[in-house]
Design a protein that fits this description.
Length: about 325
């Protein structure tokens, strides 16, 4: 396992992050305590140190399991959890980005995790009701108290992240160092704005669902059914063609489709650290093999071609030959940037 810097910080994290949304069985699927520990051990024995969880995962069980797993060597691990999502129904202040929910949620997460600090705290999803200044001031207070070391933001529009980090830089506050988004061969739409924004602000990108809910593992090609309602949007003609290409590349490289799909997210010109989840040890062992492969340029081109999508305006507009001509005066190929 190699390590990467977490965005613009000096924090060293594994090139693969362990996602633990499946630790616990409260949602009708997932792994029990023993199976979760087996997955955790397989990841850490391979050199992994970056653990991702959240207050909502399996109603808090994921955090409780992780707390048990890391307490003997807490300082070794880079522990990340999230706040925003509800901890109970019927009370508007038990969810959201605002300070009240932030402070309560972080305290309860640390209790479940059996720790007195978090290495990374993610804002889980933008709620469109809280001003970014309130969010940033609350996060800075947590950092100044030593409760949180670094901050990241997940599932938020690019313009809002850019605004927040610009405000933080102006005010001398701590900036977001990571961005968490869905990103895989089936859903590449973050390439429109979110990934370019992350590169410009030097944010580490930690994609969730790099296998598109299993669609890119090839299992649906074998007739398996999707477990979650979201699986239906990954079962269409375009997704099938992409999955078939992934299987073809995996066959050529003598590796598994899951390894190809995850590796594709990593071979970018910016820091991308995919979040890999599993409920069984053999699943995590399979994905960990991605560290040993490189997809040749010709296969990357084929994967990019089969999964191509419309950038929309202004992305496609910028790529029009006429626009390139009038913008650069027929010197575009001579300019290095």
């Amino acid at each position: 396992m190699n390590y990467k810097l977490f965005g613009h910080t000096g924090l060293r994290v594994s090139e693969l992050c362990l996602g633990t949304m499946g630790f616990g069985t409260e949602w009708g699927w997932g792994a029990d305590y023993v199976a979760s520990k087996d997955v955790f051990d397989a990841y850490t024995n391979a050199g992994g140190n970056f653990i991702d969880t959240a207050n909502r995962y399996t109603e808090g069980t994921s955090e409780r399991f992780i707390g048990d797993f890391i307490k003997a060597d807490r300082d070794h691990f880079v522990l990340a959890t999230k706040y925003t999502l509800k901890d109970k129904n019927g009370d508007p202040n038990f969810a959201g980005n605002h300070r009240k929910n932030m402070m309560r949620s972080v305290k309860e997460s640390m209790d479940r995790l059996q720790t007195d600090y978090l290495d990374i705290l993610w804002l889980h999803i933008w709620d469109f009701t809280t001003h970014p200044e309130e969010v940033l001031m609350g996060l800075n207070d947590l950092i100044s108290r030593g409760l949180v070391h670094y901050i990241g933001i997940s599932d938020t529009p690019a313009w809002r992240v850019a605004q927040a980090n610009t405000i933080a830089e102006l005010r001398g506050w701590h900036k977001f160092a990571g961005l968490q988004v869905e990103y895989n061969l089936i859903n590449r739409t973050v390439e429109r704005d979110l990934l370019p924004m992350a590169k410009a602000f030097n944010l580490a990108v930690t994609p969730w669902a790099p296998l598109a809910g299993g669609a890119l593992s090839g299992k649906y090609l074998k007739g398996e059914k999707g477990r979650l309602p979201e699986a239906s949007k990954r079962l269409n003609e375009r997704s099938t063609l992409i999955a078939q290409k992934v299987v073809e590349v995996a066959t050529a490289l003598e590796c598994t489709p899951a390894q190809v799909a995850v590796r594709w997210t990593m071979q970018k010109d910016q820091t991308v650290i995919p979040i890999i989840g599993a409920t069984k040890p053999f699943q995590i062992a399979d994905v960990l093999g991605v560290a040993d492969i490189v997809i040749p340029a010709e296969w990357m081109t084929e994967l990019n071609t089969v999964s191509a999508f419309e950038l929309g305006f202004p992305g496609d507009f910028f790529n029009e030959l006429g626009v390139i001509d009038v913008t650069y005066g027929q010197t575009r190929d001579q300019i290095v940037f």
